[in-house]
Amino acid sequence: LKEENATLRSKINKLQIFSETQADKMRKLEKKLEENKIKEEKEAQDLEAMVQHVEQNLQLMTKRAVKAENSATKLKQENALLQVQLKNYKTENEALRLGQSASLAVVKQNADVALQNLLTVITNSRSSIKQLVSGAESLQLVADLLKSIDRISEMSEDGQ
Q: Which GO terms of the cellular component aspect does the record hold (predicted)?
């Protein structure tokens, strides 16, 4: 009976040790689970903040693109008007050559004014075109960011 008691006590001790080991493992796993939950919540918050930032940038880029398009339209209209004026000045210049109209000085002055207007329009057009290209590149960057956010979301979902 003593021997059986000793055997049972030995088994009880082993079971207690095993139970304590399992309890320690369980506590560690629970702690790790809690840490993972906190980490995932922080990542979700960071991702949400990044999405909001990207959306704000997208709105800003859209406004800039609309402004640039409006400016380009205005410059096209101004360019068309100047083309008509240039044509009129050329016609007047031709008439002056044939001796039908005012002095050569007036024609030269009109041509200089038309030239200055054209140079101004060209300069403004180049600037607007650069803005449009810059806006398009920015929009492409935002689109690429949104694609990468989708990939991050998919990776996070796969990890769960």
A: centrosome; ciliary basal body; early endosome; midbody; recycling endosome
Over the stretch 58-71, which tens digit does the pLDDT of each residue have?
899 999 989 988 99
| Contacts with 142 (C-beta within 8 Å, 6 or more apart), sequence order | 54, 57, 58, 61
DSSP letter at 100 equals -
- Buried b / exposed e over 70-87, threshold 16 CB at 10 Å, is ebbeebeeeeeebeeebe
Place of tokens 């079971």: 15
Q: Which residue shows structure tokens 């998919």?
A: 154
Dig out the tokens for 143 from the structure: 């689109």
Residues 149 and 54 sit within 8 Å (Cβ to Cβ)? yes
Cα→Cα distances 114→40, 44, 73, 138, Å:
66, 60, 20, 36
Kindly report the pTM of this predicted structure: 0.40
Nearest to 74 by CA among 152, 23, 127: 127
* Tens of pLDDT, residues 116-144: 888 888 888 888 888 888 888 888 888 88
